[in-house]
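Re: export button greyed out
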Amino acid sequence: MPISHDAHTVKQFDAQLANLRNLVLEMGGLVEDQIKNAVKSLDDEDLTLAREVIARDQIINGLQVKIDEDTITLIATRQPVGSDLRLIMSLSKAVTDLERIGDEAEKIARMTIKTYDVVSSPPSAKLLRDVTPMAKLATDMLHGCLDALARVDVEMAVNVARGDDNLDQEFQSALRRLITYMMEDPRTIGHAINVLFIIKALERIGDHAKNIAEYIIYLVKGKDVRHVSMDTLEKDALAE
Amino acid sequence: MSTTMIETKTALDGAVNPDVREAPLSSAQITDYDHRQTVGRITADNPKMACREVNVYYSEKHALRQVSLDIGANEVIAFIGPSGCGKSTFLRCLNRMNDTIVSCRITGHIQLDQDNIYDKSIDVVQLRARVGMVFQKPNPFPKSIYENVAYGPRIHGMINGKAELDELVYASLERAGLTKEVEKRMDEPGTSLSGGQQQRLCIARAIAVNPEVILMDEPCSALDPIATAKIEELIDELRENYTIVIVTHSMQQAARVSQRTAYFHLGDLIEVGETDQIFTNPRHKLTEDYITGRFG
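Workaround output, generated via the alternate export path:
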């Protein structure tokens, strides 16, 4: 393994690092639930669940603050270097992306309320038909990057990064379809715009998951693979 | 008369072989603890000193093995590693301080500019004027502050007359950032200063003889954080005019003051590289374990 798993001479440092990592993974689990519930609330037209998702975003925000505090304490007291520094920086950056994914879940929940909490008729099924497959792609990416983070697995991280192109393409075709519906029947515009916000949120979740995958590659390989082509990313990540 | 034996078998009179073991900087970390060949670039673009295949023995003990490393001009290079790793031993080879140790034997080749410093024609006193040294504990001479700095230039016959000496003493104290603190007490003994001031006095004394390289052996380990910060600031300023080699037990200090870092372990030079690379992404697991505090 390229990352040292041997214990530090100062055991408390190990405990602090493990604690930080567990908090981030716990936050990741919560965020995953939020996305699933937000999408479920839309599928099931369940406004109670949507409101729950909105309320629970506070828990995620609280975790972000707690993890940031712990990170600052670790840096101040331990002056981490090498793989410890890369781990702490990667976790700290992943937390920012996780918090934003939480915000996207909240957005989807708000759109659910907007879509079904109106006097007018609900949207037709064809307007919503891209949401389910895109939600599947986005949650798979999120799940994959959290798994890769838990296992410190570069190959899994590369797979997540690869998935983002797929999601982007889905978003583009979904967008084209929405535009077509809106041109065909301007009465759909209100609902179509809500759906547009939802699929945009799902597309953003993919971007954040890809970011987290890139931090994992940095953590393991020490190579910064942000803003590079997929080919370069794969080459740097999988080089022996 | 010292009984130190100095053998410079390799390249005794010839030029330093430039292509000694340039280990590739591969992406994957070397996890094999038995990989003892130096990882990273041992050469410097503009070498001030060039060391090749240096070995040091204390009687039967092989204290330093096959170390090849360039010290670049006007760079600060830090030597780090656990106690007994050979970093101080190697530092002391650079101005032949090991000559004074009776059981010590050195092989290999060390060059200062174009001069083989272990050549028979080299005057060791002159060499140590070119390659000065600052020690762990401040060791001012039991003389006045002024005399501490004036002593070196005087015995080396570097100056003509009192005015020139005054100028040199003040310039050296100024460079060491000490003028303001001592200008009114130049006749007081050097030992009356605080620890940090004494250390800067020793640095002033070292630079008074206009050295090219300054070796520092844990120069801050006996100082408080403020005095340490002043020395570190000074090191950064001195880099303009001198080449500095610093041995330190404080990894944070190595990270702060140096441009390159060399990591030693049990007599081997394990890894050398740009300091930011060593402290963010070391290529050898031994380096990683040491800098992250995992050393058992």
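Residues 289 and 296 of chain B are 9 Å apart (CA to CA). The button fix ships in the next patch.
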